[in-house]
Design goal:
homodimer; alpha/beta; Aspartate Aminotransferase, domain 1; Aspartate Aminotransferase, domain 2; eight-stranded mixed β-sheet; three-stranded antiparallel β-sheet; 42% helix; globular
Chain lengths: 434, 434
């Protein structure tokens, strides 16, 4: 279907372009400086976790169920934190490790283990090329997705393979077809709930197909980054099937490695990261990590579990986060609907949680829209970043991160995005005729 | 020279053995349970850092020179912490990174980078074998040394090569000979001040030879774990040459990678770890780490720099640690001198800092002494652990870690070590005659 600019007559389009150029010049003159680039909570939102800083003081009991959190030891994480991690991840306590402040780093480290030493008795992924005439190990990357995931596998030297996202999760027909035929496909990156950036929560069927599908590689791994597992915007929340239960039922327990952290619950970058996996994979990862780590920061684990002792406390805290985020997501929805809703120039997602809205303009528009927004003082996640190698094949996708600016700044930034999208859409319509 | 048991006549030795057996049985009956295994500070010593837990509270300013420590960002570490790290490491601020709570993990991660991706344009160390008919990359391991260092290179798949320690540092004649001839030797593990476990501080000449020597490998790296850089027991401290200055003078700036942490300054396992290296190596390590890390825990960095804002504060704090440690080291010296001083059965080091005393019994004694101590309720670092692969070729070395027990527990534990050493020495003398 054509957008409004494509539908215009030549004179009408020329006049619309002139009008839009005028608006662009006006906005440029305002010298804006706004940032919708990264999924960072706003300072006032972060401040709701400040009471956690009062929890440990010089006279506190620094033990957790007999573990002295002020000295070396307890590699696997303190007992209370592991119990909380098990609830986050949906697996038994024994199958968890509570490590440092970054789940991304745990993801990196476990992929590094797969790469260097292999998993469950299979050859190291780094050895694949030598044994297969230079063929490289591949990671499946449902896209739009999370750029830092794709960065981890790229840095290892793997080939990232783009697969489409649908509104129920990744395109399972395509994935099943690929993994059944190619044993160089060793892993898939997934954000199963309120996915980054689409906000999609995987359907039960998608989860079951992921854990049940036949893979040519015996050591295929699902990298299940449940970063937004409790990051609901509304009382009525998306529900995600327990992936560990489903994997066990399917007889593919070793396939799933799940991650979560408190980074967007307490303090971003100063939280606690968790990993959960089958007994075999947790055991091998523990051995691997113990070569370099006596134990993670147990005082920060203790601070966290005393602040958020159970899931009820977590959910209550997340409701307070939602009060900051909901108006911002609603502002995105409203501004985009008002500015682009009847233009045919764009589509976008309507997440009920997480940190992002995924926005698609006309084909070939995203890089130009991003550049124009930058010129107008609005910083966006670089166009293409949501695809492996920064290569969005249709150049349509922009990730909107509404959390950091205030609502009024956000509204201004969205006005700019709307204007830039309309202007580029009109330019493209003009260029089609040239 | 023969020890007292070797010098005895047969009857005298038999009677001495009977006497020792009797003492051993008496001690066994006491059912002791003491631990001299790891370099952990004692609980009362750790408690001197508790005031650090009062430093950040819910109303604190959480910024450091404009950096918001409560949100994502600032991968390289907060400005104040980097300045402190630069003083610890003896290199410019720009050449430091302040990361998570474990310097051991930083050591692991940078070795992993050398292994997987190489350094300064050279081939990955993992590629050496394929290019050299299966020959493995080697790490030099001055021994007795730190078991966890040797564990990192072993886990990577490198071959650990033992070189002797002298009372001025590692045996430089041997090291120069090895590295000049063999380009598979890529690195050396070093604890340059109050070394683990000998307590030796490297002489200026050793430092200069290490940074100046000709190496067949262009990508040879010195892994300079300055874990005990401020861990003096006495006002008169050992002095260590600045390795970065010396390396620059020698034109081998890229050779040195230095590490330190606050683990035995504030809270073990919950401190802050640092790394310093040449601009080129820090830049490549930053790129490597950024694939998996947005930033380390900046709130813990902030807590640390407000508690210990400069080196004067650090040294004042370390003097308080020394008050706990000095009597323990002096108890070791006294008990060993009293119990073994005129026997010819053992030698030991007399460190002026650090966490360990290195003890050598008769050849072929260490495993038996360790097993007997365990039977008598005294846990020691496993005999051999101070050598790569746990293989002490002469089976003489035991690492004494006096920090964790109280002075009176320590005295009891040392009485047991003395008894076990005498008993095993007498047994060995007996066996020599059989």
């Amino acid at each position: 279907m054509q957008n409004i600019y494509q539908q215009m007559g030549d004179a009408e389009l020329a006049s619309a372009l002139q009008e839009l150029e005028h608006e662009v010049a006006e906005v440029k003159a305002r010298g804006l400086k706004l940032d919708m680039a990264r999924g960072k909570p706003a300072p006032d939102q972060v401040d709701i976790s400040r009471p956690m800083l009062d929890i440990l003081n010089s006279s506190s009991d620094l033990t957790d169920e007999g573990v002295d959190c002020s000295n070396y030891g307890c590699f696997e994480g303190i007992p209370s934190a592991r119990r909380l991690a098990a609830e986050f991840l949906g697996c038994p306590v024994d199958q968890t490790l509570v490590l440092g402040s970054s789940s991304l780093l745990i993801e990196h480290d476990i992929c590094d283990m797969f790469w260097r030493t292999g998993t469950c008795g299979n050859a190291p992924w780094s050895a694949y090329a030598a044994a297969h005439e230079g063929a490289t190990v591949k990671f499946l990357c449902p896209a739009p997705g999370y750029d830092r995931h794709f960065g981890i596998s790229a840095e290892l030297g793997a080939e990232n393979v783009t697969v489409p996202m649908t509104d129920e999760g990744p395109d399972m027909d395509e994935i099943e077809r690929l993994v059944a035929a190619d044993d160089s496909i060793k892993a898939i990156w997934l954000v199963p709930k309120y996915s980054n950036p689409t906000g999609v929560t995987f359907s039960d069927e998608v989860v079951r197909r992921l854990v049940g599908m036949k893979t040519a590689a015996p050591d295929f791994r699902i990298l299940w980054d449940n970063a937004y597992c409790v990051h609901d915007l509304y009382d009525e929340t998306d529900e995600l099937l327990n992936v560990f239960d489903a994997a066990r039922e399917a007889g593919n327990e070793d396939r799933v490695v799940a991650f979560a952290s408190t980074s967007k619950i307490t303090f971003p970058g100063a939280g606690v990261g968790f990993v959960g996996a089958s007994p075999a994979v947790i055991a091998e990862f523990s051995r691997h990590m113990k070569a370099g780590l006596i134990g993670a920061d147990k005082l920060n684990q203790l601070r966290h579990v005393r602040f958020l002792p159970d899931m009820d406390a977590v959910h209550a805290h997340m409701k307070r986060h939602a009060e900051f985020l909901r108006p911002k997501f609603e502002a995105v929805e409203q501004k985009l609907t008002e500015g682009l809703g009847d233009t045919g120039c764009a589509t976008w997602t309507h997440p009920r949680g997480g940190y992002f809205v995924s926005f698609d303009g006309p084909e070939g528009s995203a890089k130009r829209v991003g550049a124009l927004c930058a010129e107008l003082g609005v910083k966006l996640t670089p166009a293409g970043a949501t695809f492996p190698g920064g290569n969005d094949p249709r150049d349509t996708n922009i990730r909107i991160a509404p959390s950091y600016p205030s609502v009024s700044e956000l509204e201004t930034a969205l006005d700019v995005l709307v204007l830039a999208t309309r202007y580029v859409a009109a330019q493209l319509a003009q260029e089609e005729r040239a």
